Amino acid sequence: MSKQSATQFLSVAARNTEVQENFKSVNNPQEFVKAAEELGYSFTTDELKDVVKEHSEGVTLRRKTGIWNWLRHINWIE
To answer: pLDDT at position 64, please?
Structure first.
């Protein structure tokens, strides 16, 4: 599990509607991590939240990710 994997996941998920579709029926963090693992990513929800926080510091532009509610609108610029 790693923050690097979480970063890669967010970059792909923000642009790829096929990846986003895998998360529409997810109802909790455990299901979210499992769905990400099935796509080849390995991270915990805490690692994912840390990456979002780290990359969001000082950012005011929001990009719609289209994935799970708590990541639906995140501050994210690559």
So the answer is: 57
H or E stretch including 58? Answer: none
If one counts the domains in the chain, the total is 1
Domain span at 58: 3-75
* Rounded Cα distance, 56 and 3, in Å: 14
User: 8-58 pLDDT, tens per residue?
Assistant: 998 888 788 888 888 878 877 788 889 999 999 999 988 988 887 787 777
